[in-house]
Write a structure and sequence with these properties.
Strands 2-3-1-6-7 form a five-stranded mixed sheet, sandwiched between helices. A two-stranded antiparallel sheet has the order 4-5. A hairpin with a 2-residue loop joins strand 2 and strand 3. By secondary structure, the protein is an alpha+beta fold. Helix 5 packs antiparallel against helix 6, helix 6 packs antiparallel against helix 7 and helix 13 packs across helix 14. The protein is elongated and about 80 Å long. It has two domains: 224 residues, no CATH class; 161 residues, Alpha-Beta Plaits (2-Layer Sandwich). Keywords: Membrane, Transmembrane, Transmembrane helix. This is Diguanylate cyclase. GO terms for molecular function: diguanylate cyclase activity. One of its GO terms (cellular component) is plasma membrane.
Amino acid sequence: MELVALGGFGFAFANSPAPTGTDWVRFAILAAGATVHIQLTRRQEERRRNRTRTVLIDLIAVWVFPAVLVLPATLVVALVVLTRIQRWFTARRPAHNFVFSAISHSLAAALAHLTYVALGPSDWHTLTGLGSLREFALVLVTAAVYEGVQVLYVGGILTLTSPNPTPRTVLGSKADNLLEAITTGLGAMTAVLLVTMPPTVAIMAVVTVVFNRLAELDQLQDDVVTDSKTGLLNMRGWSESAERALSRVSRADGTLSMLMIDLDHFKWINDTFGHPAGDDVLIAVAKALGEVTRPADIVGRFGGEEFLVLLPDADTAAAEVAAERVRRTISALRIETTDKRGERTEITDRTTSIGVAVYPVDASTLDGLMQAADAAVYEAKENGRNQVRFARNDRH
């Protein structure tokens, strides 16, 4: 990866013209804006980074992407390095992490700049209607290269080094990537202001500070209802969503089912392989539940090694099919992790005991359904584990 980066930098610098006086002025404006942004959001950014368990989306593209469009490659990379140094004092992470992030950001910016220049940008001061459409399309292509290189470079490294990589841990969530796209879009707007009316870039400094704080607020709201380990809903988030689904089904005189999923012999995993391995199992199960349930189903972590799935509009027969599918899927998982000595190992053949409760047959409230499903889980465990049990077995 380092050789790829060095090759990219070498090619970009070899084809980069010497900076002009205008280039230096624009660089100074972007550097000042980035510095104001970083320094005024240090506390918010530090808290946001400490809460993030997956790929962190940096909001500095507001300043880097306009450099991609209007500055030579040497100044583009210089701006990235300047921002990364300031970020290092904020996050206080190991130096090698920031060397890697600086390389990935710089390479993405340099290659995006080369793409933009190769496709023949126009003088923005002389654009006509059709010309502006062409230029807009060119900016979109450049943005795609800028984001795509980062995804490939960072995602490739994480995929190779993570014991149990998932799309979320490697690429970030949909919300994370939407945030990155918005930030890059703001960067394109900053470029237009920088070329046509440079003093107005100060407005973007204010916008980015507010945007950073809104991003933190959105993350705080998400953290309240999300289990940090698995990325699923926690009990608060799950209960709120489940209550809304139950109310809807109740008004329509419909039905729904609840699955309570308990991983068998989970303590043995922690005792044998260590707690990090147990965490990897929980993450793998959470991912599997997301893959084998419907978009309308509500999946959450109940606590410990227990999970809950609410199946709107699912009767007894549909619930049995869903529960068996979950049981078989978890049993087939092959989970790559590490043991207590840090050596690679694989955990397989994990079983689950699943309790099923159906509304309105077994209970008419969410708490009642949970109690009924919990009782069914205990019955499954008492009868040998690795099976599905219904709250009222006299119906089967």
